[in-house]
Amino acid sequence: MSAALGQRMAASNPVRQAIATYLHIAGIETGYNYFAPNVPGSYKLVLEIHYPDGHVEYELPRVNSAAAGLRLAGLLDKIGRTPYDALREHLVKMVARSVWREHPEVKTVRAVFGSIRLPGITEFEHGKRESYEFLYAYDFSLRDGKDKSGDER
Amino acid sequence: MRKRLAEFLFPVESDSWLTILRFGLGLQVALYSLSLRNDWNYFLSGTPAGLISRDLAEALLSVESRFVPTLGWLVALGTHVGLREETGLIVAWICLLVSGCGLLLGLACRFSAILAWFLHLCATKSGGFMSYGVDNFMTIGLFYLMLSPLPDRYSLDWLLRKSQSKDPQLLGFWRRILQLHLCLIYFFSGLAKCLGRGWWDGSSVWRALIRPPFNVIDPDTLVRWKYLFPVAGIFICMLEIGYPFFIWNNKTRKTWLSCICAMHAGIGLMMGMYLFALIMIVLNVAAFGPGLVRGRAKQLFVRRHGVHPEATGAGPLG
Questions:
Q1: Cis bond leading into A40, ω under 30°?
Q2: Could you say which of B97, B122, B153 is where a domain stops?
């Protein structure tokens, strides 16, 4: 299949580019295995906002409608599933920055990214509820007008 | 063999299906635009004012192909005529909404279809990190719509310009392509689900319904119906994998189409995925809906006269 789609050719190959263009403009560049073979868990991003006076507030990325909320969940899924650490950090940083803009006096933000573990039916009946599992944390600080960041796992 | 293939790919067809597709996609595009009205610039800005910079998604896309349209093209064009990025994005949103309304009414059908496809594609590709299944299916639907022989006879274009009847075989060809595409989609979606244990024991249905942000129904209510989950999981697998085998047969088509539409309506209501439900219902009803009620009568007419009743102007039977 990858040969038929030109994926073994060089990225700059015109045939590969033409095939990729057609797949994108026709909406057929991805497969159709939604929620298959199994339904994956979802992800959550919590932002710890550290104020200069020492108090801490917690915020979640916000949007204005339920439809946009589905897209935000899709973004978190993509962040959670990317195998590239640098891309993950960059995406988390951009989301953190969007929240940071609403709190310009804040100097440090810690972004905690985790997965939501869903209980099975039996577990739910025994009182277990969804839990939050830590995956990554990134510290962003604003010094001299420039972002500095560091991460930990 | 060649003749049978040609007959299969180019059946004589009326434009009823195209009316459904145009109207349905017009409604979909309009609702899509309205649902994002307050977040459009936030999602698609290329400046730090946005959630995720549009530039990142566009840069990643350009590695695959530089020829896929993005909002960056429109913003660059707007900058040439002195528009700020923010204004350019708002203009794109308004044009998308207008194109959806154009499709709904059937006004400037071809232009509206091309504009809707182009702008939606730009938004989907530039907001690639935030796109999901609904965007793929909208692109598929709009792609076929803009290539199909518009306008249909229920559009304003038809009334205002006194358009001529379109080639019924060309209408049949595009409907057939949409039908075949849906068969592929459902078959592989069903096959992939069958490979997971969760769809057989019902745990995938449970997980899908309690997974944020799809957890519209309280899990305490859901758990009372736990015995239905395995049945629902197997039913969904069978419905999807059986789609290409049962949707063509006149005897099973009505049942299969009704069940598929009911499944999507259920997903829409129980998981809050209203736009996803609408696009899937529109595509299915456009592809396999027309002719369902009096399909047998049509078949007899075609056999006796060699042409479709609506193509001859004998009256709508479907």
A1: no
A2: B153
| 8 Å CB contact of B192 and A69 | no
Q: What pLDDT shows up at residue A12?
A: 81
Of A112, A143, A147, A118, the closest CA to residue A131 belongs to: A118
- Please tell me the pTM assigned to this model: 0.90
How many residue contacts between A and B have a Cβ separation below 8 Å?
Answer: 167
In terms of domains, do B149 and B171 share one?
A: no
Please tell me whether residues B112 and B174 are part of one structural domain: no
Does a structural domain hold residue B8?
Answer: no
Residue B1 lies in a domain: no
CB-based contact, A33 to chain B, within 8 Å: yes
Per-residue pLDDT tens over the stretch A63-83: 889 999 999 999 999 999 999
User: Token digits for A73?
Assistant: 């969940």
Check residues B29 and B296 and name the one with the higher pLDDT: B29
**Residue ranges making up the domain that contains B196:** 167-312
Which stretch of DSSP H or E encloses residue B30? Answer: helix B16-35
For residue B161, give Cα distances in angstroms to A77, B14, B22, B157.
49, 19, 18, 6
* B305 and B173 within one domain: yes
The helix, strand and coil proportions of chain A, stated in percent and rounded to the nearest 5, come to 30, 30, 40
Please tell me if residue A116 touches chain B, with a CB cutoff of 8 Å.
yes
Length of chain A in terms of residues written: 153
Does B240 map to a domain? Answer: yes
Average pLDDT over residues A43-54: 92
Better-predicted residue by pLDDT, A10 or B266: B266
Domain membership flag for residue B136: yes
pLDDT in tens, B108-135: 999 999 999 999 999 999 999 999 999 9
ipTM: 0.89
Q: Which among A30, A42, A125 has CB closest to B223?
A: A125
Cα distance between residue B160 and residue B171, in whole Å: 21
Q: In chain B, how many domains are there?
A: 2
- Do B176 and B149 share a structural domain? no
